[in-house]
Write a structure and sequence with these properties.
258 residues
Length: 258
Amino acid sequence: MRLLDRVNPVTPFAAAVLYSLPMLLTVDVVSAAVALGAWLVLFAAAGIGPRTVLRRSWPLLVAAPLSAVSMLLYAEPSGRVHAQVWLATISDGSIELALAILLRVLAIGVPTLVGIVGVDPTRLADGLAQVARLPHRFVLAALAGVRLFGVLQEDWRQIALARRARGLGDTGRVRRALQAAFALLVVALRRGGTLATAMEARGFGGPEEGRGERTWARPSALSRADLVLVLLVLAVAALAIGAAVAAGSFRPPWAAAP
């Protein structure tokens, strides 16, 4: 976690793109297995425990097997056919492709989620505005929205309690949910208008004519840690692709099934 704490929040997003592009050039078991194994070793060396990895990537651990099952049943048959039920066919080629898809989704998604999930929104906004040079109005508005997102759950609870206190929340679960959702939308719009007025009053609507360039309370810049992370990402991708080429399993997605 120390390396991830030192890097600029924008760097993991750029590193994810640099890593994903070469990993999408082939669909084979070798490259995905090598990449996933390399990341697990790097996580252990960086002090990122299995609990942290599971907590941040558990949605992917649920989605990846579903992707593999669809390939297993409906991929183009090749080699020996083991079972066939209507449109579903399980063959040697579909088994290999399903395993490759499973490992590739994990090899690409797990390190991406571990690096991105948990990034502080304020630091990310500073990086997007100062390093990525995105329009500051867009960045600050997105930051405000993210900060207020957690308030929606409390608003929903308060609306439910208020309706129950008036005797409106005991019957009609679907109707009650729709009415509460509309009330929540009204509350969110009102809060958004109030927030926009407050931010404009504090100078977040500039720079305008006569004003200088916007300054930032928290400077955001790139460092050696960012370079180290990018080099690690490229090294893992190169190792995985090189292993696939050496093993003769390199298989572009557009290639015909073996």
